[in-house]
Amino acid sequence: MSAKKYTNGGDIWAKWLLYKKTCEAGKRKQHASAGKVVTIREPLIPTLGSFLDYLGVSHPTWKSYRTKPAYRNECNQVMEAIQARLERALVNNEGNVSGLKLALSYNYGWKETSAVETNGKLEIKVTYKKGKTTL
User: Fold this and answer.
1) pLDDT, tens digit (0-9, with 9 covering 90-100), for 17-33
2) Does residue 3 carry a pLDDT above 60?
3) What residues make up the domain containing 43?
4) Which residues on adjacent β-strands are paired with residue 41?
5) Is residue 126 one of the residues assigned to a domain?
6) Do residues 91 and 81 lie in contact, with contact meaning Cβ atoms separated by under 8 Å?
7) Closest CA relative to residue 48, chosen from 75, 70, 14
8) Is 109 domain-assigned?
9) pTM, whole model, 2 decimals?
10) What is the model's pLDDT at position 39?
């Protein structure tokens, strides 16, 4: 993927707002009875990978933008907004749970741990921990 050049964080933020609107307006076509096709509103859950594709930049380029003062604040705001949306989707059972967990673990360092405690009863605890952002 050839990297596009953005001159400042405001350019990236403007693209984020457009991308977010695109996700919110997501639609798909579904075949109904009698051969009719209906359009169903189905918002997409934003992910870092799809946003970077929308921007036309690679993960290494994004990582580079995040280290530069002219881009840092806006890039971090985008990262936080995507993470918050992924968290909300996971909690509200929107989308594919495995995909949401993968996005959170890969881009935000989340880890899933399981522990079995035995004290005469069988208890299984699964926790998700936020980790350090890797991208």
Assistant:
1) 999 999 998 887 788 88
2) no
3) 9-96
4) 27
5) no
6) no
7) 75
8) no
9) 0.74
10) 84
